[in-house]
Amino acid sequence: MSIRRFVLTYAAGILAWAAAGLAQDSQSIADVARQTRQKQQQQAAAASDAANGPADPSAKVPAKAAHVYTNDEIPEHTGPDVNSSPRTPAGTRENYKGGKQSAEQWKSQIRQLKNNIASLHRQIDNIQNSVRFAGGNYERHVLYNDRQRQKEQQVENLKSQLDQQQKRLEDMQEQARHQGYSSAVYDP
Description:
This protein is mostly helical. It has six helices and no strands.
């Protein structure tokens, strides 16, 4: 065997060995996450088996694994939730429609509704003040302007909620007035 052939064979062997070593070291993030999830599931299964009653009472029970949240469990959220109505105490709507309430109940419900209306006003003002359209027809401006249009739509949704809340306030005030309370109660 010639020296030249020996050197080429030796160099090829070293390159093959180095390539195999590098291929084993590189592991994708997905593989790491999958392995971690499998380990957690195995730990959870072992913990549930231990909770059901270990065969050996002297055996140690492993600690419960912490829950790791994945992207599948987290809802996407881009801004304030415009579909949710302002929080009110349970049964508020039903209470003022029905029988006679005390003056303090009317006052607190009306005051809370007024606070919700003021909060909606602030949200509308903040969003309206943040709307700024970009000039030109560049691609990034188009995307930016689409986001600004979304803000305008959000303002319109908030305004419709505001109208509903104001009508509800007027109804509540009218109900309190019909029950014989003075303006100190229905217009605190």
